[in-house]
Design goal:
Layout (H helix, E strand, L loop, with lengths): L1 H8 L49 E10 L4 E12 L3 E13 L5 E16 L2 E14 L3 E19 L3 E13 L2 E3 L5 E4 L12 E3 L3 E10 L4 E10 L13 E13 L2 E7 L5 E12 L2 E12 L10 E11 L3 H29 L3 H14 L6 H14 L3 H14 L6 H14 L3 H14 L5 H15 L3 H8 L9 H14 L3 H12 L6 H20 L5 H9 L8 H14 L3 H14 L6 H14 L3 H15 L6 H13 L1 H15 L5 H61 L3 H11 L7
Parallel strand pairs: 6-9
Antiparallel strand pairs: 1-2, 1-17, 2-3, 3-4, 4-5, 5-6, 6-7, 7-11, 8-10, 11-12, 12-13, 13-14, 14-15, 15-16, 16-17
Helix pairs in contact: 2-3, 3-4, 3-19, 4-5, 5-6, 5-19, 6-7, 6-8, 7-8, 8-9, 8-10, 9-10, 10-11, 11-12, 12-13, 12-14, 13-14, 14-15, 14-16, 15-16, 16-17, 16-20, 17-20, 18-20, 19-20
Length: 749
């Protein structure tokens, strides 16, 4: 009895059928497909054509219930489809079939479909799904089997004028689920059949060829769906029937409004269906929500003994559409992510972590070539190398950027930085050649003032003071180089003997508001220079000089010079006690200052004026001792230069490797290479920084040279005078007379 029922109860497979027959008659040529749930053009009908889910544009969830009026036969399903990127769509559906026999135990089928569709090109999609079928036969026998479907869809027409046409071709049950017909208790796994062949004691669900059409037109008011199916195309004789049976269905939906439509359907089983659909959009959590209700009587055409049948279906869509997700991802990839990486690189740069900044800006330049700030990333990448004194790497980046970004508004800056590197390396001829190019091609750009400044500095260092002034005069307040340009102009005018012009330049600096510590330091230096002019002018104003010196705050780089100026000012007005205090402060608190020897000279003068000849001798001898030899000797310069030249090849190698790593994305392999380079970089960078510090000290030593002979002469002459006075005795007026003879203008450098 059970064996006979199994042969007839397999009719309701959810993967391909809703033929919930109440009778026990089966004919293969009457095998039906699901006209109620599995409509081509919908996004959940994977087993009609698995490629159809490619039309899903956002997360879609649907559920449906189909039943006879008696409720003895029913089917339910839940389906989810999810679009992923432009080309991929995933789908999962769960079906349940059930029917009771004479009010007794129930027979049930449960099927899970897992589908995938791939958008091969804009209008062609491929799809495949796997169905897993579980059958429970009155809790006495259970079976498990599986099948698979293949499909392709072609979007033949997509036009606002002519409408939308989708054509599909699918091979349903290319792997045919098998249902065992053998007597068995408990669980049975049935191997599927292929192309009409399978287990001799199993029934294989027929393979079908489905040709489907879906059209939407007339300004989206009409939807038409048609399917032609060839049933049981790989027919086996033992299955009965003739096989390869054609069937046809048609559905028309007319929308009375965008939210309400009426529907007529002629099913493959041969009876009409009437229904309606209603939908709303953008409500609460739903982007789209639709409810379909359909009903019919399957005895209208032929006796099915089910009577009145009906189905209800709800479809909902959530979240962003495929385009919105991809647009957001593209926006993130092209806008948000590069901007975040750019800001992170800039933070490293502002924190003076220049090597890390070079790598970070290199990531922006390499990973986001279309980013709107990529040219600025290249600029700061090169600036990072330049700040590390890695001029070879910096020049390579600037030169590459000039070629890579020919339309960038950063091009003038690239050219200027190349000029600036030549200036830093003392290549004045090459720098001035680049200056001429900037003047010709970028004469109207903001960079021109920066180039004027560097060119002016070059002319100044070449001793061409008037030419330097002519170039620097064009730099106006508001320019970042204004303070520096005015300061150099003041020194140049001093060397030209144009004291009024020099005073005006230094006064311009003191009257401008400062925006950073560097400008504040330069303002202090200008105050000191003004003090020197007031002190040494033809009409000396010692009081004004002292006031300028006194405005310099402790901690300033020129505080020692200001203190020395105050000491000289007090000495000039015959106040040795007041003069001695700032001079001794320099000696005690700034022992490494180049002005210590001159401070001892002032102290010696003060003791001399006070007739403390022993104190004068001690101070003057210290002045001589500290001034006899240059602070940085020729031998020290040669030794430092040789050490620098010896490691130049190593430093060049480090630059080349760092530049290469900055061009690569920070993969684990690249990161390990960067870590491996770090010790070599730190060693080379320390040597470069030490050499730069030594050169700065050498420059200061050279500037001191002009004072060294004066201090030696003054200290020696005064020391001899003091020793003479110690033997003869001299009055204060005579001492003052000697001091006037020794007095000399302070150096204006």
């Amino acid at each position: 009895m059970r064996s006979n029922f199994i042969k007839t109860a397999v009719l309701g497979l959810s993967v391909a059928s809703t033929s919930l027959f109440a009778d026990a008659t089966y004919s293969p040529h009457k095998y039906q497909q699901n006209d109620w749930f599995a409509e081509f053009g919908g996004n959940t009908a994977m087993y009609v054509n698995p490629a159809g889910i490619a039309e899903t544009e956002q997360l879609e969830v649907s559920a449906a219930f189909f039943s006879s009026i008696s409720g003895e036969a029913s089917q339910e399903y839940v389906s989810v489809t999810y679009p992923w990127d432009y080309k991929h769509t995933l789908g999962v559906s769960l079906f349940e079939n059930g029917a009771s026999i004479d009010g007794g135990k129930s027979y049930g089928e449960y099927s899970i479909l897992v589908g995938y569709a791939y958008n091969l090109m804009q209008f062609v999609s491929l799809g495949v799904d796997l169905s897993i079928l579980y059958i429970n036969q009155f809790d006495e026998t259970t079976q498990l089997t599986f099948g698979a479907d293949l499909g392709v869809t072609v979007n033949a027409l997509s036009s606002s004028k002519y409408g939308y046409l989708l054509i599909g071709l699918a091979l349903q049950n290319v792997a045919q689920p098998g249902i065992s017909t053998a007597d068995a208790d408990g669980f049975t796994f049935v191997v599927p059949g292929f192309f009409g062949s399978g287990s001799s004691d199993a029934y294989n669900i027929p393979s079908n060829l489905n040709l489907s059409f879906f059209y939407r037109g007339l300004n989206r008011t009409l939807e038409a769906k048609a399917e032609i199916s060839l049933i049981d195309i790989f027919h086996a004789e033992e299955e009965g029937g003739s096989g390869v049976n054609p069937e046809f269905s048609l559905t028309l939906t007319y929308f009375l409004s965008p939210h309400l439509g009426v529907r007529l359907r002629f099913t493959k089983e041969g009876y009409p269906v009437a229904g309606a659909t209603v939908n709303v959009k953008d409500v609460s959590i739903f982007r789209y929500l639709a409810l379909d209700l359909e009903m019919s009587h399957d005895d209208l055409y032929a006796k099915k003994n089910r009577g009145f049948i009906w189905a209800v279906k709800i479809t909902s869509r959530f979240g962003d559409t495929r385009e919105e997700k991809i647009g957001e991802e593209r926006y993130r990839r092209l806008k948000i992510e590069p901007e975040n990486d750019y800001r992170a690189a800039m933070r490293l740069y502002l924190n003076r972590q220049f090597l890390e900044a070079a790598y970070a800006f290199g990531k922006v330049q390499t990973k986001y070539p279309a980013f709107h700030l990529v040219d600025q990333a290249a600029f700061y990448k090169a600036k990072s190398f330049e700040n590390l004194r890695m001029h070879k790497a910096a020049k390579a980046v600037y030169e590459d950027a000039i070629k890579r970004y020919p339309q960038s508004d950063q091009r003038a800056k690239y050219h200027f930085q190349l000029m600036n590197i030549d200036y830093k390396e003392g290549k004045y001829t090459e720098a001035m050649s680049k200056y001429q190019n900037i003047a010709q091609k970028f004469g109207e750009s903001d960079v021109k003032a920066d180039a004027d400044y560097v060119a002016g500095q070059i002319k100044f260092e070449q001793g061409l003071y008037q030419e330097a002034v002519d170039l620097l005069a064009a730099i106006l307040p508001g320019n970042a180089n204004y303070f520096y340009a005015r300061y150099t102009m003041g020194i140049a005018y001093s060397r030209l003997g144009k004291w009024d012009e020099a005073e005006n330049c230094f006064r311009d600096i003191t009257e401008q508001p400062v925006s950073n510590q560097s400008e504040r330091d330069l303002q202090d230096a200008a105050k000191v220079k003004l003090g020197h002019i007031f002190f040494s002018g033809e009409k000396a104003d010692i009081s004004a000089a002292a006031q300028m010196y006194a405005q310099v705050q402790a901690g300033s780089p020129v505080y020692d010079e200001a203190m020395l100026g105050i000491a000289w000012s007090f000495l000039k007005v015959n106040k040795p006690d007041e003069a001695m205090k700032p001079a001794k402060w320099i000696i005690s608190n700034l022992p490494e200052s180049f002005l210590v020897s001159e401070a001892y000279l002032v102290v010696g003068y003060c003791h001399f004026m006070k007739k403390d000849y022993n104190g004068a001798v001690k101070a003057l001898e210290q002045a001589e001792k500290r001034t006899e030899q240059p602070v940085v000797s020729v031998a020290a310069r040669d030794s430092a230069r040789q050490a620098y030249d010896a490691m130049q090849d190593e430093f060049d190698s480090v630059q080349t490797k760092a530049l290469d790593l900055a061009r690569q994305l920070p993969t684990p392999r690249v990161q390990s290479k960067r870590e491996a380079l770090k010790p070599s970089f730190d060693k080379a960078n320390e040597a470069i920084e030490n050499y730069a510090a030594f050169n700065l000290k050498a420059i200061q030593s050279d500037r001191f040279e002009s004072n060294r002979k004066r201090i030696l002469d003054d200290a020696g002459f005064t020391l001899a005078t003091v020793k003479t006075k110690m033997g003869q005795g001299a009055g204060s007026s005579e001492a003052a007379s000697e001091l006037d003879a020794l007095d000399d203008d302070l150096d204006l450098e």
